[in-house]
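sorry for the late reply, my laptop died twice this morning and i had to redo everyting from scratch. anyway the thing you sent over, i finally got around to it. pasting the sequence first so we're on the same page, its 526 residues, then the predicted structure underneath. double check i copied it right bc i was rushing
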Amino acid sequence: MALRCIGNLVLRNPQNLDSLAKKQVGEEPHVQPALNAILSIILRTSIAQEFVAADFVFKCFCEKNPNGQALLASTIAPHPNQGDTHRAASDMPFGSILLQALVSSDVNEDMEACCRASSVLSHIIKDNLQSKDRVLQIQLGTPAPSLGRTEPLLHRIVTCLSIAASADGENDQSSHLEESYIQPVILRLLIVWLVDCSNAVNCLLESAVHLNYIIELASSKRYTACVRGLAAVVLGACVLYNASREKGRDTFAVADAISQKIGLTTYFLRFDELRKSLAHPSSEQRHRKELSRSSANSMSDFQEIEEDATNKDDQHPVLSEIFDSQFVDFLNKFEADIRENIMDIFSRTKTATAVLPAELEQKNGEVDGEYIKRLKSFVEKQCNEMQDLLARNAMLAEEFVKTGGGSTADTSQKPSSGRERVQMEALRQELEGAKRQIESLKTEKSQIEAEANHQRNLALKMESDLKSLSDAYNSLEQANYRLDAEVSVMIQPYQMMTMKMKMRNSNIFDYYVVSMCNSPCWVKML
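ok and here's the structure:
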């Protein structure tokens, strides 16, 4: 009761949260932080209700407290003396104690400690992407040959889940109830870690063994309905938050593996089984007994809770406390998202490069026009076949989803079927093609208008140049006429003088001739 009171006091109360984070408990020389002491209770107690109450403290401490989550996540790192079992836990940081429990071996006590530490870690990283990435970077000292590097913490947790599953099958009926909550709690950690964290999904799928193992958990009847359903949720998270483009690890690869190895109908039935197995009884039935510090009374209460759980597929009573209504509501909403996403995957094709068929090659002697027509006919045929394939896949996926049942949304209220959605998609693509063609025509029109403007400007320029040349020619003509007139004016005196000189010379000659003729010498000579 005291632990639950502490949880209620710190829930969304910044002052009390800060006080709890700084609180030291114990006596010298064994003083340790209060959170370390509560973690020790979780890992060491043999009383189930005490574990649940201590886990409730961490749930309340981490809820809506990202700073507190980041503080706890920052301490998670391997400790130099982590393998020393004789070393006092008070000498180790909170995160090192938690990590030591997480990487426990397959001894029963260690597996239960791993399970309880997984529950604490799920509170630390819940709804906090920074803390998820921080814990995802933790590398253990154990080498992983398949990865070529040291083993990530996430891979070790999956290994612990596998060990718990194999141990669960080997245990007898008396210990089955004590071990049956280990796998669901570890699976809850994986779900919380993978949600909204594509890096965690990519890390999980780095090893193909992990995907095959989760599929086995979801499909095998050896495990409880709760384990099968939670494994189905993990697979859904690998589909929904998968950002990988690597072949064999992308969304399509995971969806294909689910379809081939489990079957979509069986896969969606796992969610119905999970919902029934986690159906909470009334709060009056679940809390009709007060928690007691007495071990005898606690075990008596524990046995009564066990009797109430007999109609819940032998579900461990701890699960009724840890898997509260908040987590169940989250699973219901998450289930609807998974159904919708898988339906969408089976309604579209992969973006993969296909090998071109030989008939697409141009034949010898085939003219380009005939070759283009043949290619166009081939592409149209392929498009029609693709639309039919999409319609079949959409209807098939929708049928599987409806067959799975239990969806939180009423699919009958949706007005469009798979074929209608494909037809709408085809019309949308045609509309986009028409828009692209219109844009192309607009661009071509703009180019033509620009060219016309350029030619118009060029014509105007040439016209202006011709006018300038004409004006220059006219100016030259006028100048030539003026010069001719000036030359005419200037040459007139010269012409008159020439004429006078000619007349004068003619008169002199005549006079000389007459004089010679009248001369006696000339007469005598004659």
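DSSP finds 23 helices and four strands in the chain.
thats about all i looked at so far, will dig more tmrw
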